[in-house]
Structure formats: C-alpha cells, structure tokens
Amino acid sequence: MVDLLSGGQFLCCVEEGPPPVLIVAGELDAVTRPALMNAAAQACARGRHPAFIDASRLRFIDSVGLCAIERVVERCHRHHRSFPATVIGASAWIARIFRLAGVGHLLAVEDDIVDGLAGLAG
After folding, report:
1. Tell me, what's the pLDDT at 40?
2. Considering the chain, what is the average pLDDT of its residues?
3. How far apart are CA 14 and CA 12, in angstroms?
4. Pick from 15, 9, 6: which is nearest to 89 by CA?
5. May I ask the CATH class of domain 2-121?
6. Domain map of the chain by residue range?
7. How many Å apart are CA 96 and CA 122, to the nearest integer?
8. How far lies 109's CA from each of 22, 30, 65, 89, in Å?
9. Tell me, what DSSP letter sits at residue 47?
10. Residue 111 CA neighbour count, 13 Å, CB half
C-alpha cells in the first residue's frame, strides 16, 4: 500500500494493484474528505487511476463524503475515459446510500473485487 493518509478515525490509501484500489476505512465526512482527495490526486498524478474503491472498512459516510467519492470518480473519468469505477465490499447500509444517491451513472456497487471484475467483463 502507498499514500497512507490518516486523520482521526479515517484511513485512505491506494493499493497499487493491478488494478489499483482506493481503500477507505473509518468515517468519510467533511473532516476526512481532504485525505481522500489527496490520496486520489496523488494516484491519478502517477497515472494509477483507481478502478475500485474498497469500502469494506468504511463505517460511516455522509453527504460530503459521498460527494468526495463522486469527485474522485469524475476526476479519474477526465484523465482516463474508460475508467470503470466500482465500489466493492461496502456494508449493506453504505451500499444502499450509494444506490439511493443515484450515482449509478458514475459507479457500480459490487460485493467484492471478483464480482467487480466480472461486471467489467460483461
């Protein structure tokens, strides 16, 4: 793992892959948003656009955190048009937040990386 950033009860890093995975753990909100944005910006600057967002250890996300995830995905789309963003491993209620927020045009929500890779294949 690289780009280990922490702030309070939040951890964010990019596992280099392949494919690169943005790992978020803890609570994603207004306080921890900068750590997420920084890790994603560093990965994109190196051309390592995260194809997956591992939310298996994400305990809380509010509207600011959700917007931050959207911004990360939009930034990666601008730099890499074929970017297939997929959230993996989210708890049932966090996955529901993503679905209810209507971000399906930007990213898919899958149980794990195997399902995510299968979604990319067909």
Report:
1. 83
2. 78
3. 7
4. 15
5. alpha beta
6. 2-121
7. 23
8. 14, 22, 16, 8
9. T
10. 3
Q: If you compute the radius of gyration of the chain from its CA atoms, what whole number of angstroms results?
A: 13
pLDDT tens digits, one per residue of 6-23: 445 788 888 877 777 888
Which residue type, as a one-letter code, is found at position 86? T
In the chain, how many H helices and how many E strands?
Answer: 4, 6
The distance of Cα 81 from the centroid of its chain, to the nearest Å, equals 17
Q: What is the pLDDT of residues 66-97, one digit of tens each?
A: 999 988 888 777 766 555 578 889 999 898 89
Q: At what angle do helices 33-45 and 63-79 cross, to 10 degrees?
A: 10
Q: Which of 56, 87, 54 is nearest to 70 (CA)?
A: 87
**Which amino acid, one-letter code, is at 90?**
A
Q: What is the pLDDT of residues 29-68, one digit of tens each?
A: 999 999 899 888 887 777 766 678 899 999 999 999 999 9
Distance of CA 38 to the CA centre of its chain: 13
Question: Residue 3: its pLDDT value, please?
Answer: 39
